């Protein structure tokens, strides 16, 4: 798996999510402006609820659009051992229980998962607690962090 292939998978996923979100926003907007959404009395909140849903869907469309734009303009960088893990690093971690996970340090779309060959890759950002701890680290280093009061330990197995 190369980072170029991974970037293509992330872009395809974001483009698909963007299309679905736009369709959902359009549907929500139509529901909010439909004549059946007009209040029949002061307790009828169908129109208000539909308007809130439409606004939320519109915000989601904008979030995905921004992430898509960032990834379309993303410059992939090779790993530099002197600088350590930076944005666009592909990192394989081992946890204390022996489980492995593969992460891509991206500019946005945290939590997005793509299947790249036999590996599932999750996007994290430098703003996340794990992303912050990974910055500047290298292969063989250990990372500790506490999430929701639980201490977790990871070893950096591989960085690309």
Automatic annotation (TrEMBL):
UniProt KW keywords: Elongation factor, Protein biosynthesis
Keyword Protein biosynthesis: yes
Highest taxon, organism lineage: Bacteria
GO MF, any single term: DNA binding
Species lineage: Bacteria, Pseudomonadati, Pseudomonadota, Gammaproteobacteria, Pseudomonadales
InterPro entries from the UniProt entry: GreA/GreB_C_sf, Tscrpt_elong_fac_GreA/B_fam
UniProt protein name: GreA/GreB family elongation factor
GO biological process annotation, one example: regulation of DNA-templated transcription elongation
């Amino acid at each position: 798996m190369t980072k170029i292939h991974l970037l293509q998978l992330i872009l395809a996923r974001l483009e698909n999510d963007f299309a679905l979100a736009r369709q959902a926003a359009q549907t929500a907007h139509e529901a909010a402006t439909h004549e059946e959404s007009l209040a029949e009395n002061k307790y009828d909140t169908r129109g208000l609820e539909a308007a809130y849903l439409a606004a939320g869907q519109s915000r989601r469309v904008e979030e995905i659009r921004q992430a898509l734009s960032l990834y379309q303009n993303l410059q992939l960088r090779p790993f530099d051992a002197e600088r350590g893990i930076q944005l666009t690093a592909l990192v394989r971690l081992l946890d204390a229980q022996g489980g492995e996970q593969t992460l891509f340090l991206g500019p946005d779309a945290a939590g997005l998962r793509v299947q790249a060959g036999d590996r599932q890759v999750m996007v994290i950002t430098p703003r996340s607690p794990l992303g912050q701890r990974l910055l500047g680290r290298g292969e063989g280093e250990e990372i500790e962090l506490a999430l929701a009061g639980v201490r977790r330990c990871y070893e950096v197995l591989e960085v690309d």
